[in-house]
């Protein structure tokens, strides 16, 4: 009978991993096998595991991981249903591991796996708390960014991030890094968990200023599948930075609301003025503005404020119907109060603005409790 079979614990560390690689993935089925092969190659000789965190991808990513996991105990899959989000996927992957060092890496082979051992060693040696794969130190490059727009977004984001960071990082937007697991776990309750920028969130939220090293690394073009980063992810990022600066006093969700609400007010006023210029009466113009604002607010809240609970398919339509019904109540208040004001003062701008603000406040209250309620 072996030591493992007799009910006694194996000798300390006999089968525990020294490093856990967390790979968030969504629709990366074609990349799973090459990803595991790359990790086997660069981590040979270490005790490692890889945890894919998949948000129930329709392309069968989780099945592809399970197929490998059946014959390779290095490989595991955490599968989340009804949830989306890179940052929260990374957090849950880290929390599911027990290795002293965790590494985070994209599942699309854009991060250069050859740099992974250096990142791990910088943390495992005790020299740093966090080691970051940087595209902007000598030897790194950014060739994989799809186009000039992505380059501009990336550079703008880096500047914004550097303005608020407690440590110097040339590439705070990197999604390729290693960290002490205990530091990550200790910081986890303070993380925003929205959007893409988990590294920035970690550095900004850590209880003490972390010791950080940068390792030059390239960012390769994507071979299979497509990027999930879009402009709305950037909005979430800006919101997260504001959230951190406000020290948690303004919750991210509220700021998402405020942002969407402000856009709704602008849409409302723009359409109202447009219709008015075309000769519409106040009530018609106000209805036109209100309806456009409702649609914009629904769409933006679904994509930004509630990206993590995003309604799709049949639930999108029932959610929209519910949203419209409840907003109509707000809209009657909006147009009613606005036109009272208009009658009393014969003044368009203020009347419309007061009505619009009332409609927006109502929308806030409703959307959080009824339409996108936590399940
Ligand atoms: N579980 C889960 N859920 N994974 C996700 C989600 C999600 O909602 N969205 C994206 N991912 C996974 C992707 O499948 C991929 O493995 C990884 O997260 C990165 O997503 P991409 O969509 O490929 O991002 P990118 O290539 O545009 O962005 C990269 O560059 C940024 C810097 O410009 C990433 O490396 C980012 O981490 C990095 O910050
Ligand atoms: Mn990518």
TrEMBL record:
A Gene Ontology BP annotation from the UniProt entry: polysaccharide biosynthetic process
Protein name per the record: Glycosyltransferase family 2 protein
Keywords: Glycosyltransferase, Membrane, Transferase, Transmembrane, Transmembrane helix
Primary location: membrane
Similarity-based family: Belongs to the glycosyltransferase 2 family.
Record's subcellular location: Membrane
Protein's membrane topology: Multi-pass membrane protein
Glycosyltransferase among keywords: yes
InterPro entries given in the database record: DPM1-like, Glyco_trans_2-like, GtrA_DPMS_TM, Nucleotide-diphossugar_trans
Record GO cellular component, one term: membrane
Superkingdom: Bacteria
Gene source species: Ameyamaea chiangmaiensis
Residues of the GtrA/DPMS transmembrane domain: 257-372
Domain Glycosyltransferase 2-like span(s) in chain numbering: 20-184
Membrane-traversing stretches: 254-272, 278-299, 320-342, 348-372
Single GO MF annotation: dolichyl-phosphate beta-D-mannosyltransferase activity
KW Glycosyltransferase (keyword) present: yes
Native organism taxonomy: Bacteria, Pseudomonadati, Pseudomonadota, Alphaproteobacteria, Acetobacterales
Pfam families in the record: Glycos_transf_2, GtrA_DPMS_TM
